[in-house]
Amino acid sequence: MIDPATLFTIVLMAGVTYLTRIGGYVVLRNRTLSARATAVMEAAPGCVLISVIAPDFVSKNPADLAALAITVLAATRLPMLPTVLIGVGAAGLLRHFMA
């Protein structure tokens, strides 16, 4: 059973991530962005996702730390979506088998 606060946090972070993506398109749709501004707009959802996993940096749970290491390794080699999927899958599997 998922904690209601955790579920609320996940839904809120997903909403903020979606709004940052849609907001950028709506507000800036008729403008030509510089390469730097484009990079900032593309990095915003990743920053929100990092805020979700940041507490695991201080976790004492070995499954969370291992999943974090796998996610960081995936992030160095893969785009964001596969990295997120690998991170979520690793956390779920490691928590199941190491708990």
TrEMBL record:
- Source species, domain of life: Bacteria
Matches recorded under InterPro entries: Brnchd-chn_aa_trnsp_AzlD (IPR008407)
Question: Which residue ranges run through the membrane?
Answer: 6-28, 35-54, 66-94
Q: Which organism is it from?
A: Mesorhizobium shangrilense
For this protein, the record's Pfam families field holds: AzlD
Protein name, per record = AzlD family protein
Q: Which UniProt keywords apply?
A: Membrane, Transmembrane, Transmembrane helix
